[in-house]
Write a structure and sequence with these properties.
- The protein is α/β, with parallel strands linked by helices.
- It has a single domain, classed as Rossmann fold (3-Layer(aba) Sandwich), CATH 3.40.50.300.
- 42% of the residues lie in helices and 16% in strands.
- The protein is built from 12 helices and 8 strands.
- It has an 8-stranded mixed β-sheet, with helices on both faces.
- Bound molecules: adenosine-5'-diphosphate and magnesium ion.
- Adenosine-5'-diphosphate (ADP) binds next to helix 1 and helix 10.
Length: 254
């Protein structure tokens, strides 16, 4: 069971888009996949066509120990893909768990209780901020996919992730490793190509071969609550997302 988090402390960097579409591709290729939504916006569920508003119990109850994994996990319209849903109730978690010494380990412990043979992949969709929830995600994941929108602030976001990992490694003696850095929202401009070159220098092994270009079909798919493979399977965006998923699958967890 590979535990992979899609993380970048910036919003709008395609974390959710990559998480749900990589999950859908892996499920279509015969892997059993869980998407754990850890964002109060509940976009992972929405992107998979699950109405998460008012849903109960959610991952929030799991983190608080009020519900068991089996009570929270749900099927999705995508065969082979299950969901731990989130919605805005999750925003209360940092305050509710503030006094608990184990507050940053709740997700790790909850996932450790899932039988190891139930899923091939657990993909965690992280929130766009540094918070107790992000801390839970970093402690629960073994691998990270870091999507980087090719704007001029992109490299700052990467530097912050690398800093967080170094801090975690210093504190705990372990931290997840970066499996893939994925250039996203690419449009051919001189700036985007310069940032891409810097990423290639900084992450020579981790940078994905495929680049997710800007594509209106990818945006539309999310707003229709569908994966790109359902909405526009022949589009360039579907091709890029499939390549990125295949690249993650072929890189072993070691
Ligand atoms: N390749 C793309 N081309 C155009 N729009 C995209 C693309 N990928 C994602 N989007 C859109 O950008 C917005 C932010 O993407 P999202 O994956 O939700 O980012 P995050 O989870 O990092 O905040 C969404 O509206 C999404 O539909
Ligand atoms: Mg998101």
């Amino acid at each position: 069971m590979r535990r992979v988090a899609f993380i970048n402390e910036k919003g709008g960097t395609c974390k959710t888009t990559l998480c749900v579409n990589v999950a859908a591709w892996l499920a279509a290729s015969g892997r059993r996949v869980l998407v754990a939504d850890l964002d109060t916006q509940g976009h992972a569920g929405k992107s998979l066509g699950v109405d998460v508003r008012g849903l109960s119990p959610t991952v929030h109850d799991l983190l608080l120990g009020r519900a068991r994994f089996e009570e929270v996990v749900r099927p999705t319209p995508v065969p082979g893909l299950e969901l731990l849903p989130a919605n805005k109730t999750l925003s209360r978690f940092p305050v509710e768990a503030a006094g608990a010494p184990d507050r940053a380990d709740r997700l790790r412990v909850a996932l450790a209780e899932v039988p190891g043979d139930r899923y091939d992949f657990v993909l965690v969709d992280a929130p766009p901020s540094v918070s107790l929830v992000t801390e839970n995600v970093l402690r629960a994941a073994e691998e990270l996919v870091v999507p980087v929108a090719l704007t001029y602030l992109a490299l700052d976001g990467c530097a912050e992730i690398v800093d967080s990992l170094e801090r975690l490694r210093a504190e705990r003696g372990e931290a997840p490793r970066i499996a893939l850095v994925v250039p996203a929202l690419y449009r051919k401009t001189q700036l985007a190509d310069e940032i891409l070159e810097k990423l290639r220098e900084r992450f020579p092994r981790e940078l994905s071969r495929a680049v997710l270009g800007w594509s209106v079909k990818v945006d539309e798919a999310q707003s229709h609550g569908m994966t790109i493979f359902e909405y526009a399977p022949g589009s360039p965006g579907a091709g890029a997302l499939a390549s990125i998923a295949a690249e993650l699958a072929e890189r072993s967890a070691a």
